[in-house]
Write a structure and sequence with these properties.
Elements (H helix, E strand, L loop, with lengths): L3 E4 H22 L4 E2 L7 H5 L12 E2 L3 E7 L6 E7 L10 H24 L7 E2 L2 E2 H22 L7 H7 L12 E2 L1 H27 L2 H8 L4 E4 L1
Parallel strand pairs: 1-9
Antiparallel strand pairs: 2-3, 2-8, 3-4, 4-5, 6-7
């Protein structure tokens, strides 16, 4: 018989697992890993009196994508163009970034799988006589290690030609040059920290769903057990 067991700790772990998976996925897909050198206003903008009122634009560069601004002659209109600069995996700017993409993708795939499974932990608490929370916690720990490897390798690629074109000639491995780090990099770091927190907290979720109070309500014949 299926028992639906909901506790504060198990629900919090489920929500954190989903948030972490989405945060890492969004960061990986974003082009805001590096914020490049400020580009001055175009001559058309200056001629039209627009240069003094607008701040210089700073293009952004991600692991496989980028955002840049294109100026149009007519009405001096500007469009921000975002998209992948690499049409395939081999065109990613640096071998280190290729390794970063692999490790991050593996970690994110595991996190998304755990996030999907976590939704069903209210009904299923064990897999092959092993606690589903402990199994998911172990997978989150492994995903966290993949994410750490990816984030360590990422700065090693700052010396590639693509990064130099955005960050200036002084950019090199682990040196930003004229660039600054974007929100996607910090989001990936924050998501990695939360991944390990989820891995540890999964043990608390397992304890909460197998507590004596839960067992008492199961023995009373209740199918829906909600403990706050």
């Amino acid at each position: 018989m299926c028992h639906v067991i909901v506790t504060c700790r198990s629900m919090l772990w489920t929500l954190l697992s989903i948030v972490v998976a989405f945060a890492e996925l969004i960061a990986f897909m974003s082009a805001d890993w590096l914020i490049g050198r400020a580009k001055p206003s175009s001559s058309e903008d200056v001629d039209n009196g627009m240069g003094g009122s607008q701040e210089p634009y700073r293009p952004t560069l991600g692991i496989y994508g980028r955002c840049t601004r294109i100026s149009h002659m007519q009405f001096s209109r500007r469009d921000t163009l975002c998209g992948p600069y690499a049409e395939n995996f081999s065109e990613i700017a640096s071998g280190f970034w290729q390794a970063t993409a692999i490790f991050l993708a593996m970690g994110i795939m595991i996190l998304c799988t755990v996030a999907f499974v976590s939704v069903f932990t209210m009904c299923v608490q064990s897999i092959m006589k092993k606690s589903i929370f402990n199994v998911c916690g172990l997978l989150q720990g492994i995903a966290g290690l993949f994410l750490i490897l990816g984030l360590i390798l990422y700065p090693a690629g700052w010396g590639c030609q693509k990064a130099i074109s955005y960050c200036g000639p002084y950019a090199s491995a682990y040196k930003l040059g004229d660039c600054s780090l974007g929100w996607a990099f910090y989001t990936a770091i924050g998501g990695t920290v939360l991944t390990f927190i989820c891995a540890v907290f999964s043990a608390q979720a397992e304890i909460a769903t197998s507590s004596d109070k839960v067992q008492e309500e199961i023995e009373e014949g209740k199918n829906l057990i909600c403990l706050l």
